[in-house]
Amino acid sequence: MAYDRFVAICQPLHYSTKMTIRKAVLLWSAAVAYPIFTVTYALALTAQLPLCGNKLNRIFCANRAVVHHSCGDRTHSDIFGYFVFFTTIFIPLFFVLFSYIRILIVCKRGSAEVRRKAVQTCVPHLVTFVVYSCSVFVEMSMTQFSTGQVNPVVTAIISLEYLMVPSINNPLFTD
């Protein structure tokens, strides 16, 4: 969506050549295939690990929390977890921030009406996406701590924030 808005606002005369059906399907396919791959691979890695305990101090079962209860060598799972952490949070966040900042810079040169429409359209999406990214960052960061280091009440509150705030935020700030 950020790429579509970027091309539509920053390069409107090139929109039909840059945002083709083929590119839209490619972007959609990547957005669907990446989570399927990462979840499947992470679960396959986790299924191979022997468990040393069965008590999770979480509101919901997270894959990384299960990996932390493993007695075996979890090096490969940890490396893949850091890869997923980076590619799930930072790459999309930087791409979206870059796209929307470029949109706002281009619209700054326009009339007051153009600036108002750009801010009215882009800022709610940007706020929603940044809040979502921060929530995922905090939730994924929490799974890196052992259960003895973090108060269970704090873990529960952060888990609720991860589940509730982006869900409530999305309808409030989007069209």
From TrEMBL:
<feature type="domain" description="G-protein coupled receptors family 1 profile">
    <location>
        <begin position="1"/>
        <end position="174"/>
    </location>
</feature>
<dbReference type="InterPro" id="IPR017452">
    <property type="entry name" value="GPCR_Rhodpsn_7TM"/>
</dbReference>
<keyword id="KW-0472">Membrane</keyword>
<dbReference type="GO" id="GO:0005549">
    <property type="term" value="F:odorant binding"/>
</dbReference>
<dbReference type="InterPro" id="IPR052921">
    <property type="entry name" value="GPCR1_Superfamily_Member"/>
</dbReference>
<dbReference type="GO" id="GO:0007186">
    <property type="term" value="P:G protein-coupled receptor signaling pathway"/>
</dbReference>
<feature type="transmembrane region" description="Helical">
    <location>
        <begin position="79"/>
        <end position="107"/>
    </location>
</feature>
<dbReference type="Pfam" id="PF13853">
    <property type="entry name" value="7tm_4"/>
</dbReference>
<keyword id="KW-1133">Transmembrane helix</keyword>
<dbReference type="InterPro" id="IPR000725">
    <property type="entry name" value="Olfact_rcpt"/>
</dbReference>
<keyword id="KW-0807">Transducer</keyword>
<dbReference type="GO" id="GO:0016020">
    <property type="term" value="C:membrane"/>
</dbReference>
<dbReference type="GO" id="GO:0004984">
    <property type="term" value="F:olfactory receptor activity"/>
</dbReference>
<feature type="transmembrane region" description="Helical">
    <location>
        <begin position="25"/>
        <end position="47"/>
    </location>
</feature>
<protein>
    <recommendedName>
        <fullName>G-protein coupled receptors family 1 profile domain-containing protein</fullName>
    </recommendedName>
</protein>
<keyword id="KW-0812">Transmembrane</keyword>
